[in-house]
Amino acid sequence: MRRIAIDMDEVIADFNSKHLKVYNHDYGDNLTIEDLKVGRLEDIRPHLASQIIDYLHNPLFFRDLEVMKDSQEVIRNLSKRYEIYITTAAMEFPSSFNAKYEWLREHFGFLNDMNFVFCGDKSIIHADYLIDDNVRHFDRFNGQGILFSAPHNLSVTGFDRVSNWQEVQQYFLKS
Ligand SMILES: [Mg+2]
Asked: Model pTM greater than 0.90?
């Protein structure tokens, strides 16, 4: 079976909505997803960059992210024809491990725990496809990178791109 590696944040877990919500609440701001098209939250509010990043070190931050629309259903379907691995660069926020693991168990419990890969540098991942919102992970990836649209990558070109999970389904039905 061919393997599909799938990123977590901004691909199956709605990271931006939670980050915006807690930031807007705490700082009385009203930034939206649209605002993130010009830069990441910490880039558009540089004077608060360290506080904005600090949220991500909270061990509970990643525990209650919303699931990206249709991701469960499509991954469940794909898992019948492909080996599915969830690959997250969790080393960027080591305090997130437990929350991410519990989140995966809650929302993607139909996958085997052994298919959850918490890593640092994703170039170690050996798979046929990698679905990710960060193109840097494709640099040294040997398989086919598939860019999952996120506000920060909308102007990036040169990659196979999907905008939502229905498009992921279409992509793999064709291949
Ligand atoms: Mg991501």
From this structure: yes
